[in-house]
Amino acid sequence: MTQFVHPWRGDPETVGTVAVIGMGKIGLPLAAQYAGHGWHVIGVDVQPWVVETLNRGRVHFAEEPTLAERIAEAHAAGRFRATTSHAEATRDADVVVIIVPVMLSDTKEPDYRYIDPATTAVAGGLHQGVLVLYETTLPVGDTRDRFGPMLEAASGLAAGDPEAGFLLAFSPERVYSGRVFHDLDTYPKLVGGVDAASGARAAAFYRSVVPAEVWQLSTAEAAEFAKLAETTYRDVNIALANQFAEYAERMGVDIQEVIRGSNSQPFSHIHQPGIGVGGHCIPVYPHFLISRAPELTLPALSRQVNDGQVGAAVAALERELGPLEGTPVLVLGLTYREDVKELAYTRAIPLIDRLSFHGARVSAYDPLLTDEEVARTGAAPWHWGDRAPFRAVVVQTGARQFRSLDPAWFPDLAVVFDGRNAVRDLALPERVAYVGVGVPDPRAARRVRRTAAAGSGGRR
Ligand SMILES: NC(=O)c1ccc[n+]([C@@H]2O[C@H](COP(=O)([O-])OP(=O)(O)OC[C@H]3O[C@@H](n4cnc5c(N)ncnc54)[C@H](O)[C@@H]3O)[C@@H](O)[C@H]2O)c1
Prior knowledge:
The protein is α/β, with parallel strands linked by helices. It has three domains: about 5-220, Rossmann fold; about 230-305, N-(1-d-carboxylethyl)-l-norvaline Dehydrogenase, domain 2; about 310-435, NAD(P)-binding Rossmann-like Domain (Rossmann fold). Helices cover about 40% and strands about 15% of the residues. It is built from 16 helices and 18 strands. The protein has helices at about 25-35, 50-55, 65-75, 85-90, 115-125, 140-155, 180-185, 195-205, 220-250, 255-260, 285-290, 295-305, 310-320, 350-355, 370-375, 440-455, and strands at about 5, 15, 15-20, 40-45, 80-85, 95-100, 105, 110, 130-135, 165-170, 190-195, 215, 330, 360-365, 380, 390-395, 415-420, 435. The strands form four sheets. An eight-stranded mixed sheet has the order 5-4-3-6-9-10-11-12, sandwiched between helices. The structure holds nicotinamide-adenine-dinucleotide.
């Protein structure tokens, strides 16, 4: 049985008050998780309508399973309220968790336009003994070298001083949107402090709010780097899969068969090739490394390969259809991935741009988006089941609904480009070509076999 104490100083079986800064797709579920473990939670956001909604016990987005129920319950139990005042929330809190995004600038540098003001506003309420935790993914060193001095300057207190100052630590948020609560309960929670006392207090906090193992790393930098390393690893892995897919196409080999075969060896974990990588995380965090460590050449090359997949898709359509000028094309799936209503860094936007640049008339559909939201991407909204003169369909997410697409809706259809290996089992009429990433074109395969038979062996 946990006991509510004030002030909270990290003792086992005790809970206190936590302020969560940023009530977004991750911050709000974190607030619900902490309240579910007995903490008194104050949610902070700059958007007054978000705060008003939360103070009625309601949530402002619906996609995270069980979130609405958890927030309603915490609110009814008096353990959750929201405010627009960082300083007021911080003054009442024993722990402050900052989960406000760091974005990428137009020059692909970390863009601190949201998190810097959040930090300064928190500093206005800092008091002796409070623990400040950054969960937002950061370049290595930022907790100590960027935010530590900002908090110190604005509060007059010293970081890493549990007696007279405040404690400061980093803990990467590693959850996946749509299954946040499952991931929080499962993945080891990494933490690293700017000093041992900060790390230990942060570890004590997480032990009180997640059943998963808590791993205290020796420094904030190690914890920051661990998140960048795990996400960059995935981007590099996908880039390799994309290059393998290109070679597989040329050799008349199916990349899915290759990956299944390779990954049957336990040390091989080849990811899936596709039309590109989207979302807040994987296409963004390699740049946090690249911007600080230009000697890391693989992440930059991988970004280039993965971003090039959209161009490769457009070129494949041109090979099938000839010039795209005036050609009606349907893009299926606009979010960065299926089942998550998030357009951040989605590859659908450059895809629509490139198709339009080549003169195609682009329509689009996404089961999660309204007509207005679709229109904002630059494509004309299409409605599921409408007959239309599309010559090409490009599948950009793996939404389950797309598997029940009926080619009879599109009498002029000539090609389906499957950017996510999602509609492979679709029964297509003879006249419609199926083009997948790393799926051999039967015509190319015949050419390879003929060349091999002639004894040249081809380019390998
Ligand atoms: N979304 C994911 O799948 C995911 C997964 C793992 C980790 N993360 C991490 O979580 C961070 C946040 O992601 P998200 O998806 O919750 O973002 P989000 O865009 O859904 O939410 C951000 C929230 O912060 C608020 N905000 C902006 N400036 C603020 C300020 N100065 N003070 C208080 N609130 C402010 C916004 O109003 C918004 O509600 C990411 O940057 C990333 O580091 C995200």
